[in-house]
# Entry
Amino acid sequence: MTAQITVTEGGISHNTLMIYGLVGSIVGIYLTYLNTVTGTQLFSFFGGLGAIAALIWGSSTIKRLCSYGIGTGVPSAGMLAFGSGVVAMLLATKFGIASPIVALVLGLVLGAILGFIANNILAMKIPVMIQSIAELAAVGALVMIGFTAMATGSFTFSLLSVIPVTVLGATANSFGTSLIGGGLLAAIFMLGSIALQHGFNACLGPSEKQDRTLMLTAEVGFLSMLMVAIFSFAFIGIGALIVSVLVSVIGWYYTYAQYIALSRRDAAAWLDSKPIVEAEGH
Amino acid sequence: MSALGGSGPAPGGAMDPVSSVIGLVLAVVFIGVVFVLAPAALMPLLGIILGGVLIGFGVHFVPVGGAPAAMGQAPGIATGVAMLAAGAGLAGLFGGAWAAELGVVVATVTGAIGGGLMMAITCLMVNVIYVFGMGIPAASGKVTKDPLTGDTQAEYKSQGTEGHGLPFISFVGGVVGGLFGGGGGTLIYLMLLQVYEQYLPAIFNAKVEEIMPVAVSLAGIFAIGLFLVNAVLAAYNITGTIEGPHDPKFKRFPRAIVASLVASALCGLVAILIVVVNLNI
Amino acid sequence: MVENIVFGIGITALAGALAAVAGAAEDTESDIGSQGDPNSQVQLAPQMGFIHRIFNKAVAGEPPAYGLWCALGAGLAWVFLVKDINPVLALILGATIATFVQGAYATSGYLGRTASLAKFGQPVYIDILKSMLSVTMAHAFVAIFTTVAMCYLMNATLGHPFPLPLLGLVWGIALGAAGSATGNPFYGKERQYQNQKFGAGVPISASGNIVRYAEAGQRNSLDNGWFSAKLGGPASGVCFGLIVFLELWRTILFEHIAAGWGAIIVGLAIILVFVVIDRWVEVYARKNYGPYTAPEEASS
# Structure
């Protein structure tokens, strides 16, 4: 990029956001387990809220990493996060009820090794590299498992790959119409990775403010949540679907309105049908 | 550029011997784990590592100019290097996956040709736009003479720029990069498909034909994820822009090979563990 | 594999046509929205003191962005297909919802980047947002729908093993890469820097000095789209259309010859043909345009 990547100081510290994001996403994803406890699918939307918590954490990590000038721009960090995150997440789903925790730990380990490769073998020598890549891989894994739990109501491997279907009175296992079998992971993968980097990438500039960046991350998070709610149409009942869609729409509308208000606050001017305002001396 | 300090990537391409050895030791450990837990998956894991190395190496051939190329200020294609390589590799993976029943060798070569074909068409259209749409001949800023054709470059470089378009060496580099990327991605996909076809029927207590959708999708999404990881690591190695195989930055590739080796061994291990870990909880 | 070759060739031709339309629409959309590498100039201009009325859509680059829209459109279409909704309706619904997401991302990208340039006095022009947004969403719909339809044909009629969302991801990224590679220089150099001399690259000293006052008053992104739709868009369409068509054509016609090696040899032959054409184009430029300076004067 020819434009500068500058970092602005102030706002909530990265470690605070990391703790809130980590705890928030684990709690959110585990709350979908209430589905199994209560025998319904109404609590699926908590997976989406957990994913948004992880996205906000990841957005702060990307900002921290990219302010060191890694030379390839912001979106590739999102790709690295989700490329390693999807690998960690799929193995984690084999651990039953411990899946979210395993996803977090596995993501951190995988990311740390990848960060070591990037920082030491590729000699990038950026102080926060290993920690940032570890965090990003963990965020990728958590976002994927959160959205998957929201779409299907559960996060275990067997339930994600097989759906019992009833054909002519006999129940058979269908693999092709499941979340994994149908390849829907690809759509969730892209939803997450673009949402992760969009907050920082779209608010890039000298007058970047942290509250606006995080609000944008929350907005695209809720937008992705709305899309995953529509995905869940194929897997969960109509009642749970309506709950998911409602929560997503309300969350998206609120964060979007807030984001526009914050942009209005920060912009140099908010003009409608006015000509170019020439800068001084040009 | 670094706004907050940090020394940035090391100049030149010096390999750090200590971390390279640590990386290689890690890779051997990962291979050993698979050898112990799932001996039938050992050859596929080696295939995955080879595929990853091909991707990482191939990215170094692709000529990418970044933002200056979009203004005719630098030679190369005006897109991000990781995603351009991903585009070519995935187009190759598409063809290779279609030929999966014809055997590993045929399918991998088909995937390679698919990736190379996409890069050939794209690079040709880039030159067509530069020559016929903008009236700008191709010129390199890094060499005085094109290594393949012997054309002199300096006098065809417009004033105030570093070169523009795709000189023949860059074009060939792009095609070669597409070949390696498409072949590498397809190889990863085929190896994983082999592993899943072998282990998944036992896990689900179903026939191979029934679990095929899950095997194909899992292998496909893993191949894409591994592709992106390797491409981004290679992009970090060349720090964003490279003119092609004649660029001095190209000499950094040994680092990238070690990096791709370790990263692919790690991700391949995790991908194989999915069908090995059966806790039934 | 395809049993009936004639049917396969027909679908290949249709897929190639859809791909050509997708490529043209994708490039025009990214030029109206100003996305990807040329957008760095739109971002740089206020920092150099050149305030402008161009839409600054900062949504990743074109390959990942189109990977998202097409994978999302394909995923949504897949969900509707699983629920036994008519395929055509499923494709249209999927593309429409994906376009809505694209619009939301485009708006937030413009607002975010422009608000973060407040230090240099670049205002947010709400009328630019309102005018450009519907146009860029319209082009995006065309690109997404044609790509997802093409993927559906590949999966449902040609028998490709990948499920629809995975195909959407693969071809979305390829679409973005091809369209971005072909269309970006034309928009970036030819239109953004139209005031520079034709037939040469933009000198580094002119960075940021994009055209802001043009044929009909103050330039906006619709003017840029009008221009690049004349050459950059169709060229991107030809590029992506050729990629899809030739890939499918060589597979369908030659796959069963020599157990797959037929398609490989044909593919290699096509690559060599393109290498020859490219060399001809390069020599044509050198001979007919001539050097900028005499060879002895130019220093290495």
Observations:
- Residues 1-12 of chain B have pLDDT under 50 and may be disordered.
- Residues 51-267 of chain B form one domain.
- Helices of chain B lie at 17-37, 42-59, 66-69, 81-98, 104-133, 168-204, 208-238, 253-276.
